[in-house]
Amino acid sequence: MDKYSLILENIKRHIKLTQDEERNFISLLKPIAIKRKEWLLEAGEICKYSCFVTNGCLRGYTIDTNGFEHVLSFAPKNWWIADMYSLISQKPGTIYIQALESTEVQALSKTAQERLYIEIPAFERFFRIITENSLVSFQQRLLDNLSLPAEERYQNFCKRYHGLTDILPAKQVASYIGVTPEFLSKMKHKLLYNSR
């Protein structure tokens, strides 16, 4: 049960489960280990799982027609990640999900998730909350990108992904906030200088 304590704590923030319900849930999980720079999901594939990160960090990104990567999200330890469009529609997705370091996840298949909705109805509430939070976050990020200067976007990134700024490559942070790595470097230097 210890190796499942993190995911169970994550779930307990939103719903209560009996021990039998916890055991039922755990029986549906599939552990997956991903090496650094390997993909959990590639564009063109159908997303079959919602994944909970128990160790490591993933990034979700897309590649535009000019070959540029656009980072959409990061999923450090204790976060969920999936290509929501592909998972819900069961059509090929456009998102790559890649390990930034050796990463372990607990994967819950779409079939298992739907089974949970029937056997443990509280899970409908749990995944609704997770989905709503994700939607709010993406909407806020879109609004930030349209209306906020780069410095504020960076500060919001630091709040959202507290602790990740020291371990993530600057190129990926820059991609997430919509600036070049050079601009990010100058901006960080300026913010550091101004905070003295």
Automatic annotation (TrEMBL):
GO molecular function, one term: kinase activity
Keywords, alphabetical: Kinase, Transferase
InterPro entries assigned: cNMP-bd_dom, cNMP-bd_dom_sf, RmlC-like_jellyroll
Record carries keyword Nucleus: no
Matching SUPFAM superfamilies: cAMP-binding domain-like
Top-level taxon of origin: Bacteria
Protein name from the UniProt record: cAMP-binding domain of CRP or a regulatory subunit of cAMP-dependent protein kinases
Provenance organism: Olivibacter domesticus (Pseudosphingobacterium domesticum)
Organism classification: Bacteria, Pseudomonadati, Bacteroidota, Sphingobacteriia, Sphingobacteriales
